Amino acid sequence: MPKRDDIQTILVVGSGPIIIGQAAEFDYAGTQACLALKEEGYRVILVNSNPATIMTD
């Protein structure tokens, strides 16, 4: 799929607070998504309401 030139910024919405033991998988997936989008040249805005997340590091 070709990269769209009309999109410069992408909003990534995190999973938020999850039960204990599941947050790491969602954090990892979100982090990898943000890194991949940044490598493609997009500006990434991350919103995640989980105070224990590692996505915002």
TrEMBL record:
- Which InterPro entries does this UniProt record tie to the protein? CPSase_dom (IPR005483), CPSase_preATP-grasp (IPR058047), PreATP-grasp_dom_sf (IPR016185)
Q: Does the keyword Transport apply?
A: no
Which UniProt key words apply to this protein? ATP-binding, Ligase, Metal-binding, Nucleotide-binding, Pyrimidine biosynthesis
Q: Which SUPFAM superfamilies match?
A: PreATP-grasp domain
Q: Reaction catalysed?
A: hydrogencarbonate + NH4(+) + 2 ATP = carbamoyl phosphate + 2 ADP + phosphate + 2 H(+)
Q: Where in this chain does the record put each Carbamoyl phosphate synthase preATP-grasp domain?
A: 7-57
Q: Where are the transmembrane segments?
A: none
List the GO molecular function terms: ATP binding; carbamoyl-phosphate synthase (ammonia) activity; metal ion binding
GO term, biological process aspect, one: pyrimidine nucleotide biosynthetic process
Signal peptide location in the record? none
Q: What is the protein name given in its UniProt record?
A: Carbamoyl phosphate synthase preATP-grasp domain-containing protein
Question: What taxonomic lineage is listed for the species of origin?
Answer: Bacteria, Bacillati, Bacillota, Bacilli, Bacillales
